[in-house]
Amino acid sequence: MNLTKFFFEKTTLVPDKPALVFEEATYTYSDVAEAVKQYANLLARLGVKKGDRVALQLPNCAEFVFLHLANLSLGAITLPLNTGYRPEEINYFLDDSGSSIFVADDEKFIPDISGQKSNGKVQTIIRKGNSANSLQALLKESQKSGDTVPDYPTQADDVALLCYTSGTTGKPKGAMITHRNLITNAVALQKVWKWTENDILLNVLPMFHIHGLCVALHGALNAGSTIIIHEKFEPKKCIETIGKQKCTMFMAVPTIYYRLMEVWPELNPDLSSMRVFISGSAPLSEELFERFYSATGFRILERYGMTETQIIASNPYEEERRKSKSVGYALPGIQIRIASASGVDVKPGEIGEVLVKGENVFKGYWQMPKKTRDSFLGEWFRTGDLGYQDEKDEMRLYLVGRSKELIISGGYNVYPKEVEDVINQHSAVEESAVVGISDREYGEKVVAAVVLKEKQPAAFEDTLIKFCKGKLASYKCPKKIVFLDKLPRNALGKIQKHLIIEGFPKG
After folding, report:
1. 429-441: per-residue pLDDT in tens?
2. How many CB atoms lie within 10 A of CB 109?
3. What's 120's DSSP letter?
4. In DSSP terms, which residues pair with 336 in a beta bridge?
5. Contact 336, 354 (CB under 8 A)
6. CA 103 from chain center: how many Å?
7. Domains of the chain by range and CATH?
8. Per the CB 3.0–4.6 Å rule, which of 54, 358, 430, 488 could disulfide with 334?
């Protein structure tokens, strides 16, 4: 079982159908197949083989799609990296994964990754430019040799993706996602969302994220539909594209829907072709659900997923059955339990941790067997999310919070410990505590309470935020910092973060 082979076997009957539209370029399914073959030939010439890790730190672009599918066709593993990651973060991911190839957008990253302790053999490819290690130069050179015909040397449970998620200890973990995981989830979504070859999906989500890559791109290719990809989200351009290209599907995080509503009144877009708007990666507020329905006549379909499982549950396709604050029902082939801290099932309606079982569940964390064991209760994956099921509504699932300290800001996961570790590196900082507070635009925003070793200038907040931005992706950095004489603690010395949250004004 191989994801790339699975896609192409389904689309050979529609070779001339548009598969991918990026900016002004349109690629048919046969164009994509040919490009993937060329990129596979290039990667093979560079020594990529089954099980190797190839890291892609690219914005949305056609090359991302071609490289990813080509890499999987060789049996190698794709490691998608957020374009906002700083050199320290990139070094960790390349070192921990043992990646042999690193594909960056331009030359500026080359000096930053040189001299790594365990990746002296990492080869860097640059998407832009005409240098010897640019993508175009390497492709041209590889075409001089004979073609490599991918033999798709993978089994169903071989790893296809290595996606890093932040850990509560501050050390990101690489979630190993298999070909079986990807294929079964795409097939389930096709059924639940009534996805067909006639659909046109607009994707403005970054493909380095599980939402943009596995849900949007893989879902569209699986259904044989057309996917229009924008390099980045621009509200007005997004709305105009829906009307101009007669899109039928749109996926976003709540932050995007919030920003669309800010410009919606002045555009009055044509939505006659649309059939479904989908939201995920962060909780969708009832206020935004109702605001969007009032403005557009569409009830957003909210679903629930995470890196380790892809999509777990979805509201029904039938619009009248969608409910705000609920993530709906488990997808076909997926089972859900709600359990107490001791692992015992709670009664329907009672709150507990959401446990998941199915072929969507990942293989484990890269080189972290203990973390993997701790994340499972027998065969059941512990999501860390708290929720309950309504027995009066066919066990519809509602989420109420998280048992871990995860912050979801604009659809991205942020663990406080990782941010705290960076803040505490500053010479003026004694200690810090990072929390997420409610925010209308981001769902949650990252803020910090800091205790200083000595008094600093009034503008020190800006200095400390800038310090963080030099070491962390922007979405992880505090939007606001308050300075305290001491952090609130209980009798056992544990920081009481709920008191810190209460001290911040709500966004």
Report:
1. 999 999 999 898 9
2. 18
3. T
4. 356
5. yes
6. 18
7. 3-9+27-154 (3.40.50.980), 407-502 (3.30.300.30)
8. 358
